Amino acid sequence: MFDAVVLAGGGKGEPLTDREGVSNKAFIKIHGRPMLGYILNALAESDLIEKIVVVGPDKELAELLEEGYRFTPVSEEESMLANAAAGLKAVKQERLCLMLTADIPLIGREAIEGFLKLCAPFDGDFYYPILTRECCRKRFPQMKRTYVRLRDGSFTGGNIALLRPEWFARSYPRLDLFVAYRKKPLKLFRILPASFIFKFLLNILTVAELESYLSRMMQARAHAVPCDFVEIGTDVDKISDLELVRQALK
User: DSSP characters for 13-67?
Assistant: First the structure.
């Protein structure tokens, strides 16, 4: 069994939320149901998920509880990483926890359980799904995504991860540094090995090498998990994404 933490905090004004009349995209209505509701239903249907924790705005989470959704609410913090830390404090520390963002409404029980089973035998600290360009374009050819070119192919990441809460707490300062530098390539390169940068720029870095580098830098047993559950990477960031998802869920 696993616990699950859904990150639904950090609402901010953007064209998508402005058009839909909400302050947080997790609560955009899709066919009468909030986007977050689709994720909560998928988790509740899974026999592998025990406790569900949602980190988000108090008022909106209270309203969802009144509507009958089953989860433990946790008040949002000032950043995504702080939200993750707050959510993980509410689950069992000794076992792996599934973490999801609140903007992947196409996810269902099959994708959740399929990803979890691919992580077996569960001896790592951090598992992250990677999807090929081919499988994403086959399902949603019109959706724009960011891909990373490796020797093994072109990949994009998913919006879920399986991680060990006690490792996350221990590694918080290091993770905070990575998040702070994620949009500052020059600073990020200073903390990465020269061999990693060289291979990445030449597109000769392999998935196995990426795992090895990340494990050393994050002081974790990190695993990339190849899968074809496109739903876990179909997040709603733009108006065009929302229209695609509404059509898919029609």
Answer: --HHHHHHT-SSGGG-EETTEEHHHHHHHHHHH-TTEEEEEEEE-HHHHHHHHHT
Instruction: Say if residues 211 and 126 touch (Cβ distance below 8 Å).
Output: no
Q: What is the DSSP letter of 212?
A: H
Q: What is the mean pLDDT of each run of 10 residues along the chain (250 residues)?
A: 94 81 92 96 97 96 95 94 95 95 96 97 94 89 82 88 94 78 58 72 82 83 93 91 91
Amino acid in the structure at residue 101? T
Q: With the CA atoms of 224, 86, 71 and 95 taken in that order, what torsion angle do they form, in degrees rounded to the nearest 10?
A: 50
CATH 3.90.550.10 fits 2-248, yes or no: yes
What is the DSSP secondary structure assignment for residue 118, as one 8-state letter? H
Helix, strand or coil, per DSSP, at residue 150? strand
Residues near 194 by Cβ (< 8 Å), separated by ≥ 6? none
CA distances from 188 to 174, 178, 181, 218 (A): 12, 7, 5, 14
Residue 90 and residue 72 in contact, taking contact as beta carbons nearer than 8 Å: yes
